[in-house]
Amino acid sequence: MIVDFRKEEKSLIFVLTEDVDQHTSEKIRRKMDNEIKRYIPRKVIFDFSNISFMDSAGIGMVLGRYKLIKMLDGNLEIINVNRSMKKIFDMSGVSRIINIIEEESNEGVI
Amino acid sequence: MKGLYDNEMKLEFLSKTNNEAFARITVAAFVSQLDPTIDELSDIKTAVSEAVTNSIIHGYEEEEGIVRVVSRIFGNSVEIEISDNGKGIANVEEARKPLYTSKPNLERSGMGFTIMESFMDDVKVESALGLGTKITMRKRISGSQELRLRQEQICEG
Questions:
Q1: Does B58 lie at the interface with A, CB-CB under 8 angstroms?
Q2: Cα Rg of chain B, angstroms
Q3: Residue B82 touches chain A, beta carbons under 8 Å
Q4: Cβ(B75)–Cβ(B6) under 8 Å?
Q5: Which of A29, A47, A60, B134 has a CA between 20 and 30 Å from the CA of residue A53?
C-alpha cells in the first residue's frame, strides 16, 4: 500500500496494492488506522486503481475506517473502483454514506 | 460415451486465509474454458472467495481443517461446490439473511451469502452441526460472441 500525506490540504491518500479479502484486510486496516491516527487528516482517499479484486471483507474494512475518520472529523472518498466492487458497495449500502467514484471503463483492455 | 458433465476439477487445501486467493484464481482459470466475460469471471471469483472465507473463519474458526472445492462444467454452465468438515451452521436461514454475522468483532459485514446469491444464478446450502457445510453454486456463462459463433458453425456444419 502506498501512503501519501498532502500537508497543505491535510489529505491522506492510500493507494491499495493488494486485492482485498479476509486474509489481506486485517493488515490493510491496521496500517490505515495507524496512519489516520498519526496525521488526523481532513480528507482521506482510498484509491483502488491498482487492484482488481475485493470481496465482502472490503465492506467491513471501509466502514471501520469511515467510523474512525468521522470521529476525527474528516471525510472519506473512494476512487477508481471497478464494476464488481461498485456492486458490493451498492448492495451493502456503503455507497449511500460514502462517496464512491467508479474508474473509467476500460472494457477489453484487461 | 458422454459423461454427466463435460469437465471436472477438485482442489483440497488447508483452512488458511492465504489460500483464498489461490482458490478463487484456480476456479477462475478452470471456468475460463467457457470464455466468460470479465464481469462473469469477477462475479465467480467473488462468490468463491465468500464461500471459502466462511469455511475458514466460521466452519473451522481458524483452526486447521481441509476445505474442498469441486467445479464442474455442463454445457455453458458452471457448478462450484465448496465444503468443509467444520462446526456447521445452526440456523441456515438466519445465516443467509443480509447483514447477519456471528463475528462482528472481525469487522465481518454479514453480506457473504447475499453476495453469493446475487453474483451466482443459484446457491444451495447444506449444513449439519458438528459435521460441516457444503455450498453448491451454479452460474450460466453467456460466453463471448466469438465462441458462440464458432459453436453455431460447428452445429450447422
A1: no
A2: 17
A3: no
A4: yes
A5: B134
Note whether residue A87 is domain-resident: yes
Q: What is the CATH number of the domain that holds A47?
A: 3.30.750.24
Cα nearest neighbour of B111 on chain A: A56
| A91 lies in some domain | yes
In sequence order, the β-bridge partners of residue B136 are B81, B124
- pTM (predicted TM-score): 0.90
ipTM (interface pTM): 0.89
* A108 in a structural domain: no
Rounded CA-CA distance B16/B12 in Å is 12
| A23 with B18: Cβ contact below 8 A | yes
Q: How many domains does chain A have?
A: 1
pLDDT tens per residue, chain A (110 residues)? 999 999 999 999 999 999 999 999 999 999 999 999 999 999 999 999 999 999 999 999 999 999 999 999 999 999 999 999 999 999 999 999 999 999 876 554 44
The hierarchical CATH code for the domain B7-156 is: 3.30.565.10
Domain that holds residue A23: 2-102
Contacting residues for B145 by C-beta, under 8 A, at least 6 apart: none
